[in-house]
Write a structure and sequence with these properties.
2 copies of one chain form a homodimer.
Chain A (H helix, E strand, L loop, with lengths): L1 E8 L3 H12 L4 E4 L6 H5 L14 H14 L4 E2 L3 E6 L4 E5 L2 E10 L12 H4 L4 E2 L2 H4 L7 E6 L5 H10 L2 E6 L11 E3 L4 E7 L2 E6 L3 E4 L1 E5 L5 H4 L5 E2 L2 E2 L12 E3 L10 H22 L1
Parallel strand pairs in A: 1-2, 1-6, 2-3, 6-17, 7-14, 8-9, 8-14, 9-10
Antiparallel strand pairs in A: 4-5, 5-6, 11-12, 12-13, 15-16
Chain lengths: 285, 285
């Protein structure tokens, strides 16, 4: 099991900045996210106000971040965090089927753009899951429906199709899908999730589809779902100027902490979160 | 007289970031500072945690900022602000012997590293001045002492020597000075300012020197000296997460708002200050 000083969840500007500064402060980090960095950054047309990098395409800024991490010797662990539990002296992170331990946690997961679907929160943990890697074993030989908010989620659906008897995929985006034949793609926007006779029902604008398990896959989950006990303010985490959340040892930065949703603001907050997290760890020694 | 939407004081990462974002938001800006940018940035040996610009020399980061401003069509006005007055609907800025008006003000002046000299605050406005350009006329044909905290202040001493009968210069730094012959350089560290028989006395570690006027020239002045009525917290300005100060329409960002003194933190705050200032102006329309 991996044990680090600081677990950083998210590879947007906030998470990258936090990882660079934490490493500079001689703290070991576990940076969880995607080598493609933040989808929001990578897709930005042109960013004009990231000081020092004039008129940069989002994909180029994402590449610059990746290069910076590489040069600083910081690896990205491409796994999704299912949950973070405060254990007193440390935090336990559920990462796929594995666990990791960290002395402090920095949340940089971005803001949940979509509202939860009707029924989603109510059925979470009772047939509705946010993590294919974690919960696929529960649906071995059974049927699953996947509501995917970005093409990046297709890999999870493909993985489920190796385990489940049947997988339906509801893309919540316009791009072409690229999925194994076994996955049935249903081009209808999901509008809600219900329960009927012990099975889950995906409701769309055009019909209803039954499945044993429903996976709702987005880049970010609501912060208080990820970290039980965290004080949230709608889709945002409450923080002070030191980027401290309501839970000692848990810090947050970036879009997750509120508007403005700006790259340089997120990067600045990541720096502050890392310095606060390092100081928190040092006081515990 | 110049009239703008937002006056931004300071050309470190905070001020540069604020100027870029304010311009992006279609606000006119008056950016006051130095084309050499922040002295602290320009002199930094290597900056390792400004995401996207790996392992950059301070002078290169300063050049990147300058280039970014140039490309965005933002000019730097190389003048020192003497004071900022809240006039109700707008702010009046005393800039040298001129005035300018702004609908909102963003302070990004950095933190005052040096403590004020004993006697400095007490005699400010009574023989002690922070601004040669503003107050030189008061000492025409008289004697002046200049306590300069950086080689950049030498230009002010040179200017004073054109107006005053005698100028003594006390460099508070180690670099060689480059001053007109008429200026008497005294290589003794100033330790205080006093008053005696209607003249000012510069006290050094080795002796005392009388002058009619004493100019104390630093890159930054205490924020509540610059903006009367501003709520300060020691050398820092009190701000909330929106970078609002205690005065409506006045925003602050960067080192001025407190630790950590980090470039990316300052740049992030400049962005937030600009967006808050733009919103403030829009609500006043």
């Amino acid at each position: 099991m991996e044990r680090v000083d600081i677990a950083i969840i998210g590879t947007g500007p906030a998470g990258v900045s936090a990882a660079l500064t934490a490493t500079n402060r001689n703290k070991s980090v576990l940076l969880l996210g995607s080598r493609e960095m933040s989808e929001k950054v990578a897709k930005a047309h042109e960013i004009r106000n990231y000081p020092g990098i004039p008129m940069v395409k989002g994909s180029d800024l994402a590449a610059a971040f990746r290069d910076h991490l590489d040069r600083a010797g910081i690896a990205i662990t491409e796994k999704r965090v299912g949950a973070v539990y405060a254990m007193g002296d440390y935090f336990a992170l559920q990462i796929g089927e594995e666990m990791a331990e960290a002395r402090a946690v920095i949340l940089a997961t971005g803001v949940v753009q979509a509202n939860p679907l009707p029924g989603e929160k109510e059925l979470l943990g009772r047939g509705v899951s946010y993590c294919a890697t974690c919960d696929a074993p529960l649906y071995r030989g059974k049927t699953a429906a996947v509501i995917g908010y970005s093409p990046r989620e297709e890999a999870e659906a493909a993985f489920l199709s190796e385990v489940c008897s049947e997988v339906s995929y509801f893309p919540m985006y316009k791009e072409e899908t690229s999925l194994p034949e076994k996955v049935r793609v249903i081009r209808e926007k999901a509008t809600g999730i219900a329960q009927e006779d012990g099975r889950r029902i995906v409701q769309t604008e055009k019909g209803t589809y039954a499945a044993d398990g429903v996976f709702v896959l987005r880049e970010a989950v609501a912060p208080d779902t990820l970290v039980p006990g965290l004080e949230a303010d709608g889709p945002h985490v409450r923080v002070n100027r030191k980027m401290e959340t309501s839970l000692p040892g848990v810090f947050a930065c970036g879009d997750l902490t509120g508007t403005p949703y700006q790259y340089i603001k997120a990067a600045g907050e990541g720096n502050v979160a890392a310095i606060s997290a390092a100081a928190y760890i040092d006081t515990k020694k």
